[in-house]
Amino acid sequence: MAGRSDKLADIVEKADKIISKIDAKEMAAHYGTKIDENDVEQARARKEWDEKKEIYINAIYRKGIALSEMKTDKEKIVLNTKELKKWADVDNAKLNLLECRQNKEEGHYALALQSATKKLSTIATSDSTKKELLDQQIELVELLGWKHWHEYLVQYKHISYPQQYRPF
Q1: pLDDT tens digit string along 19-74?
Q2: What Rg value do the Cα atoms of the chain yield, rounded?
Q3: Cα(83)–Cα(62) distance, rounded to whole angstroms?
């Protein structure tokens, strides 16, 4: 049975394969021009490129997570994050989670907490990344030694995401 580190290496390999299949220069050229919204062909092409862009961003994100968990060369992680910043919006949840994780691993707990808190205040309650960001926030507050805030966040998490609901 393959260990976690083998799976992480496999994730990086598959992400690289996906990234290599999408021509970033061609994608940049496509997004560098505006399209005529009334032209059906251009709208269809934009929709295809939007799908490719989302796949590209997702592959870079997953590769970044795997690289950071593998504790590989810091330069690879930084280059991966720079590539993600080229394509993802500044308020993209994936970019925010990756930056938060990287700041935490570098020992910059306050920066990681700042980005997690900022993102938490802007995303919808139903967003699946909210719980993950809340977990990150709880861990960071504990690392900073802020026990009172840690206790509050743990209680808030239990209220927001209960293990089970009361029967009617």
Answers
A1: 899 888 888 888 888 888 788 888 888 889 989 988 998 898 888 888 888 877 77
A2: 19
A3: 13
Helix ranges, the chain (H): 4-21, 24-31, 40-70, 74-87, 93-105, 109-122, 129-144, 147-160
The secondary structure of 73-92, three-state, reads CHHHHHHHHHHHHHHCCCCC
Q: What is the pTM of this model?
A: 0.72
Which value, to the nearest 10 degrees, does the dihedral of the CA atoms of residues 82, 88, 90, 96 take? -80
Q: Write the pLDDT tens digit of every residue in 103-115.
A: 887 888 998 888 8
- Cα 147 from chain centroid (whole Å): 27
- Give residue 31's Cα distance to chain centre: 22
Can you tell me the distance from the alpha carbon of 12 to that of 67, in angstroms, rounded to the nearest whole number?
Answer: 7
d(CA 28, CA 44): 17
